[in-house]
């Protein structure tokens, strides 16, 4: 690979990273159209570079590219989120089975720390903080599996989950209520047991709660 190719790729990814952060931070809201020319001017790059960055974000499910309407931040519907939960459950089961097979005490300790952080963040920061720590726990699980593809998918779906749940932060809704503490603890216990049926059951219980809360809302 030439230096110019690597620089071009790096620039595209840097722009995508910044836009991703702005979308997830609600600086750019779902349904908003990206001002390609304005963004290009802001970064001092060509419009083509911005569009290439948008292609990355489209592959992650964060934007929609339409030849006629331009590039807009994706609006994730409740139906979308139910489908995302279904895939996330599969990812969690696969990752948990790999972690269980490794029998690594350090990994289990990191999961327990992550679970404790979820509870602490709900106690001290409420919905926004608790949600962030919850999603970090699932990404950590995929990371500890050692499978880079599981991790990549988990991170993408986590961002899409966050994108949908953003509007709920300001609402007085049941979905804001703190999840039962046993959800993540049960997942860890099942990993310690090493029993695949227990792992599937614990993950199923977690996402059954998530789906029930979403459909109720």
Structural descriptors:
2 domains, mainly alpha, 8 helices, Four Helix Bundle (Hemerythrin (Met), subunit A)
How many structural domains are formed by the residues? Answer: 2
Share of helix, binned:
over 70%
List the secondary-structure elements in sequence, H or E: HHHEEHHHHH
Shape: elongated
Secondary-structure-derived class:
mainly alpha
Strand content: under 5%
Residue-averaged pLDDT, rounded? 88
**Within the largest sheet, what's the order of strands?**
1-2
Structure at a glance:
The chain has 217 residues and is mainly α.
Question: Can you tell me about this structure?
Answer:
This protein is mainly alpha-helical and 217 residues long. 73% of the residues lie in helices and 4% in strands. The protein contains eight helices and two strands, in the order H-H-H-E-E-H-H-H-H-H. It has helices at 3-24, 36-43, 47-59, 78-102, 105-144, 148-165, 182-193, 196-216, and strands spanning 63-66, 70-73. Strands 1-2 form a two-stranded antiparallel ribbon. Strand 1 (63-66) and strand 2 (70-73) form a beta hairpin. The longest helix has 40 residues, at 105-144. The radius of gyration is 19 Å and the shape is elongated.
């Amino acid at each position: 690979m030439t230096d110019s190719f690597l620089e071009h790729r790096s620039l595209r990814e840097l722009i995508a990273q910044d836009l991703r952060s702005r979308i997830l931070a609600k600086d750019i809201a779902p349904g908003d159209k990206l001002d390609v020319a304005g963004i290009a001017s802001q970064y001092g790059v060509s419009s083509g570079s911005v569009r290439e960055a948008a292609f990355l974000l489209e592959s992650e499910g964060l934007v929609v590219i339409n030849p006629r309407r331009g590039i807009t931040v994706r609006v994730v519907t409740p139906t979308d989120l139910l489908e995302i939960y279904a895939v996330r459950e599969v990812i969690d089961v696969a990752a948990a089975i790999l972690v269980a097979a490794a029998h690594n005490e350090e990994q289990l300790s990191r999961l327990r720390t992550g679970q404790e952080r979820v509870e602490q963040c709900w106690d001290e920061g409420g919905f926004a903080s608790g949600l962030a720590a919850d999603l970090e726990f699932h990404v950590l699980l995929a990371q500890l599996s050692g499978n880079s593809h599981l991790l990549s998918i988990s991170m993408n779906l986590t961002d899409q989950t966050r994108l949908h749940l953003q509007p709920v932060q300001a609402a007085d809704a049941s979905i804001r209520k703190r999840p039962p503490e046993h959800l993540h603890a049960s997942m860890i216990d099942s990993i310690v047991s090493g029993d695949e049926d227990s792992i599937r059951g614990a993950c199923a219980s977690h996402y059954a709660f998530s789906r029930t809360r979403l459909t109720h809302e």
